[in-house]
Design a protein that fits this description.
The chain is α/β, with parallel strands linked by helices and about 775 residues long. It has 21 helices and 26 strands. The protein has a six-stranded mixed β-sheet. A six-stranded mixed β-sheet has the order 10-15-14-13-11-12, sandwiched between helices. Helix 6 packs parallel to helix 8, helix 9 packs parallel to helix 10 and helix 13 packs across helix 19. It is globular, with a radius of gyration of 27 Å. The termini are far apart. The protein binds beta-D-glucopyranose. Beta-D-glucopyranose (BGC) binds next to loops. Beta-D-glucopyranose binds next to loops.
Length: about 775
Amino acid sequence: MSLRRIRLVVLFSLLCMVSLAQEKKYPQLGIDPIEKIISAMTLDEKISMVRGSGMGASTGDGPVAGWVGGKVPGAAGTTFAISRLGIPSIVLADGPAGLRIDTARVNDSKRYYTTAFPIGTSIASTWDTEIARKVGEAMGNEIHEYGVDIMLAPAQNIQRDPLCGRNFEYYSEDPVLSGHLAAAVVKGIQSKGVGTSIKHFAVNNQETSRNFIDAIVSERALREIYLKSFEITVKEAHPWTVMSSYNKVNGVYTSESYDLLSTILRDEWGFDGLVMTDWYAGRKYPEQVRAGNDLLMPGRKSENKKIKEAIESGALSEAELDRNVKRILNIILKTPTFSKYKYSNNPNLKKNAETARIAAADGIVLLKNEGNTLPLKLNKIALLGNPSYNMFIGGNGSGEVYKAYVISMQEGLDKLGYNVDENIATKYKQHIKEEQSIQPQRTNILQKFELLPEIDWTQNELSDVAKNSDVAILTIGRNAGEGSDRNVEKDYYLSSAEIDLIKNVAEAFHAQNKKVVVVLNIDGVVDVVKWRDYADAILIAWLPGQEAGNAIADVISGKVNPSGHLTSTFPMKYEDVPSAAFFPGTPIERPETAIYNEGVFVGYRYYNTFEVAPAYEFGYGLSYTTFGFEDLKLSTNEFKDQLEVSLTVINKGSVAGKEVVQLYLSAPSGKIDKPNEELKAFVKTKLLNPGEKEQVKFTIKASDLASFNTSQSAWVADAGEYTVKVGASSKDIRQTKTFTLKNDIIVEKVNKVLAPSIEFKEMSKQ
Ligand code: BGC
């Protein structure tokens, strides 16, 4: 051994001895009680623990590493590390449509791709907790194998208004559907030993003024609609963490609200994980600490100063800080980083892509299928519309995913043996290339993916197209994302060019007795009324993730029988939306206040109660087969503690399929207005062969009967007659049965908190 080498070895051994001695001197996380660890921290260290280590990834105790550096480049943030106490820095990354990390790394030719799964709305449209769990497991595998500890997902705000730019990340206008589906995803992810952060808690239902909008909501609408989805997920799936939102609720920033983050979330719901802010959310850092917003993300120096000042002045107690540090350490203890998991950087991308394909296909909703247009026989297809060749597979913003590939519709159809007209494909690809070359460069994730202008086909050209093919598939695209809301005229409604295209294609094809299928490659609810009559069949593919083309082809071919159902109402016109008149708030130029006048009458709760006919109702979705709902039975017709509901679903058609069985309950009015019916339970059947039956069972508990009674601050089940309605949508009710409740039940008394700071008149039946 050379002298230099000997010197190095001696130096290394000395360093090891010093660090061992240090470790002996200090308590160690995982070995010593957490209290001991906290008491060994300096005040500055404690304060650093309650804020993230900055945008980008931390490599340890030191200053924040650059945006591209750190353990997992492209992760959204990390926590502070104190190696002296054995506290590592854990890694948090987005969600929710897949793990968002950078694909490229410095001096590394390997690419770190992740799977782009279908968006939240698409997953929810499956109404299938099994597939949602599998998607979660697949995400969990990628989180775990890429060295990430917590995924910032699922996102489960209520789709209050179709214009919300992030609705695509969210699940539904209904909290029960959203809550159970999100719970399934959480369980799937966390089964892999990594955590989730359900977001954005709460009432983050718009992007306009998202950093300061004050959502004014009644206590009842909060409890029944906006908090309910989170409550279900917290109680059912125990997410490791919750992310508070940017907005205020009734005058207080959610990240500064003790009532929301401690009284409701922890004391009432029993949440025992940690709460983090959304990135740079809120204003008063000491208030956030006090509220029980344990971790301030992504973390900035100014927070240390303000928190320290508050402690020194006595405005904030050190005990409150310690409480938050303890919660953070408890989560760190559970992480793969803490247990030094040797992640492979090699998740099972192949298997996960299969899961993405299954989920995307199961989330596709068949809106219309005149004369059994679908499934399509193996014939020649005129594949029209830019998105057919340049599909939107996800939204923009923090929910983007950097995938290895996207299967286009042409590829998907080709692989299943269809003959997609090559001349048309070439024309589109050329057109897309030209249009893209004149689009502004995308420089950040808040910049929307552009909707390219369509080819201006002449009627003669379309007649030729129709002559040369057997059927037209025309794809219409919409995309949205973080940072802005959608526009009514240019986005919710199709442009006149798009409507003309559908109309002209229909004219050309119908003149030759050929059919037109419209595929909606959309982020959320769009108008269908102005053009749906031209189409023979309509499929909603949503933003289906990287396996887009395969999933759509699976459904078009009948390889997969569509079984997705709408998770939000498609209205006849935008003005019908209950929040339309007051979205996104006032003053109109720069909204600061959003009053939730519609109260609990969100989505179908409004349309059904006020008899406003929708274009397609909540829960709607066709299949290539038909299902019978038979033999609805209740275990009793007088409710005591709980009630069992059973029925039989039978496949009455000639192909195998799955059905979503939806259970709604109509409650007696009692002392308060009630929606006509509310979803209480749902299940997706297994794949039923023609003639095959499945017995479906549900349990109804007292909490399912209860509404939130504001004057009593309690969930109350009112005495009277209840109707169980079982069906295939909120309007397609197939069987009903009634039962009675003799006396009111106070199911749960809760704290009187979060009352609106402004008086307003809520929508009511009177
Ligand atoms: C988004 C969050 C996201 C966070 C970290 C914020 O802008 O609202 O949903 O998790 O950034 O990327």
